[in-house]
Specification:
By secondary structure, this protein is an alpha+beta fold. The protein is built from 19 helices and 15 strands.
């Protein structure tokens, strides 16, 4: 089976701001070299360069040369490669995410810098240069931007990974390198102060974007410590005589990880463990065929959202509980359920909790047989981005390859469509993308559907329709501001109707618009979407056949999932029977003994 591609690409959404960053930097460069050049403080920059020339000396020449070399192309490339290899090889558990973050930060900053210098042509200060001048514009400073992306990226990693009193000292020292490089470049006659400021801005924004894409919301999860038998913590006896089936993605779940997961199951008293491998042709393996004969006490799914979708389709309505072990890249269902991202820890904490019913969506369309999804279904921009990503690039770059595909589709025409909410009248719209969600948060914590919950008894819908560059900027700014606020807007309908099953409340029927109309939201138990022309479609991040129609319905509480706490609950929950009515009262109670 393919790794959950939609989960992967959704995690890359902040990188879509890189073209916006480049455009803004080009605009700033044109301003600096155009109208603003005749006004202070830019008009005084020539005198600043001459003042630094008069203060040159042997010590200053040596110190500035050191920092200039540290930020040179060869040094930046070499240090980046060494640090990436060190992050992958030296730790006991490779820091793959941090290594990717560092490499992408340096590469993205360089790409934006080259793009800006292609449109901005600013000569260097008219003073003797102590370094060879590269054939690029003086604005922005490439040395300063590269040093901030590299050494600033290392500072972020140090702050995240180091412990003890040296943590802040190391991170602070690394952050000071870029300003020191800027001073040295001005001293050596290579840049104006505004060039250095542009380089610092370019490097800072690049770090923010890549950190949001790769590091936001991550926490280092220690491997579960072995539990000792004894009076303090006795391993529970097997609760049933039925086996546990583990569905395992062979690439996402390595043999070593499988051994760790098996040890967790044994500690929880599960002795009869049967393993099923998935494949590209059979994303759920042979689970559907084995369920009637094996009738397992528990199904453990080790994979991404695509593996989970295939298994949930087989398990929904059977009463057999599922345990989610996040082994993909995005792991959107696991994130929305509040599970740890370390696979063994997630399994351990889930089995220490209880089983809860969560909703699943059932979807069909022209050329799309009825199936289920647990995260999102959609048509348009998102699906096109997933569908058209080069498999070769994806194997080399991972989720970052989706960014290239996304850029190709930014100017795709809007599609005419009709949407019907709970059997009501058809509404005519134009949009670039329609997303139907059972959960609402994408990788990086982006609340695309802020009121969606996996136990709400409803599906949430968003029509995404940015018009031109201004529309894309408005939508992006709105979503980022929502992410920073970390709170959802008022729900589309009163919470008391969340489990009513009708979905015909006034607010849901009318919908609501945000970000100047670029985002329009609905909530329903049934959604019918018809497009005027065939559109790419996706389910939980896997591309499916193009088509004109999508019809999605909610199946409330159809899938039982083992969780440390009830969906959305901030702390350890009461059992389903005693849960508050507005939280989990509609969740089906566990049937039979808990495995």
């Amino acid at each position: 089976m393919k790794r959950s591609r939609g989960s992967t690409v959704r995690g890359a959404w902040p990188l879509l701001f890189l073209p916006v960053q480049a455009a803004l930097m080009v605009g700033l460069g044109r301003l600096v070299t155009g109208p603003a050049a005749r006004h202070r403080p830019l008009s005084a920059e020539d005198s600043a360069a001459r003042n630094l020339l008069e203060r040159r000396g042997e010590v200053g020449d040596s110190v500035s040369e050191l920092f200039s070399v540290l930020a040179g192309t060869q040094a930046v490339v070499g240090v980046t490669l060494v640090c990436v290899l060190a992050l992958l090889v030296l730790p006991r558990v490779p820091h793959r995410t941090e290594a990717l973050f560092l490499g992408v930060s340096v590469a993205a900053q360089s790409a934006v810098f080259l793009c800006v210098t292609s449109f901005v042509d600013r000569p260097r200060p008219e003073v003797p240069h102590l370094d060879a001048a590269p054939p690029t514009s003086s604005f922005p400073s490439g040395h300063v931007g590269a040093s901030l992306a590299l050494y600033g990226g290392l500072a972020v990693i140090a702050a995240l990974r180091m412990r003890g009193p040296w943590r802040h000292a190391v991170a602070g020292s690394l952050l000071l390198i870029a300003p020191a490089v800027g001073l040295s470049r001005m001293y050596r006659g290579m840049h104006y102060p505004s060039d250095v400021a542009g380089g610092l801005l370019n490097g800072t924004v690049t770090l923010l974007i890549t950190a949001l894409a790769l590091l936001y919301g991550r926490r280092s999860a220690p491997q579960p410590a072995p539990r000792e038998e004894g009076p303090g913590r006795a391993a529970p006896a097997s609760r049933t005589g039925r086996p546990v089936v583990v569905v395992r993605h062979p690439h996402g779940c390595s043999d070593e990880l499988a051994d760790r997961l098996g040890a967790v199951l044994l500690r929880h008293g599960h002795r009869d463990i049967r393993w099923i491998l998935t494949s590209a042709e059979r994303p759920g393996g042979t689970l559907a065929e084995e369920l009637p004969t094996v009738r397992p006490a528990l199904v453990v799914v080790c994979g991404g959202d695509g593996t989970l979708r295939a298994c949930a389709d087989a398990l929904a309505g059977t009463g057999i509980p599922l345990a989610v072990v996040p082994c993909g890249t995005g792991n959107l269902l696991a994130r929305n359920l509040g599970l740890p991202m370390d696979p063994a820890t997630a399994l351990d904490e889930s089995l220490s909790g209880d089983s809860y019913g969560i909703d699943v969506g059932r979807v069909r369309g022209d050329g799309l047989p009825p199936t289920r999804f647990t995260v999102m279904a959609g048509a348009g921009f998102d699906a096109a981005m997933v569908r058209d990503t080069s498999p070769r690039l994806k194997s080399r770059m991972g989720w970052a390859a989706y960014v290239l595909s996304a850029l190709r589709h930014l100017n795709d025409p809007r599609v005419r469509l009709t949407i019907r909410i709970d059997g009501g009248r058809r509404r005519r719209r134009r949009a670039r993308m329609v997303v139907i969600g059972n959960v609402g948060t994408l990788q990086g914590g982006l609340p695309l559907l802020p009121t969606a919950r996996p136990d709400s008894g409803h599906l949430d819908v968003v029509l995404f329709d940015p018009r031109g560059a201004a529309g894309w900027l408005t939508a992006a700014g709105h979503l980022v501001s929502r992410l920073l606020r970390r709170r959802a807007p008022a729900p589309a309908e009163p919470a008391a109707s969340a489990g009513a099953g009708t979905g015909s409340g006034t607010s849901a029927a009318a919908g609501r618009s945000e970000a100047g109309g670029t985002l329009e939201y609905f909530r329903a138990t049934r959604i019918d979407v018809r497009c005027a022309a065939p559109q790419p479609r996706e389910l939980d991040g896997d591309a499916v056949s193009d088509g004109l129609r999508l019809t999605a319905e909610i199946e409330p509480g159809a899938l039982r999932v083992y969780l440390p706490r009830a969906p959305g609950a901030p702390a350890a929950p009461a059992r389903a029977a005693g849960a508050p009515a507005d939280r989990v009262a509609h969740l089906p109670a566990a049937t039979g003994p808990r495995p």
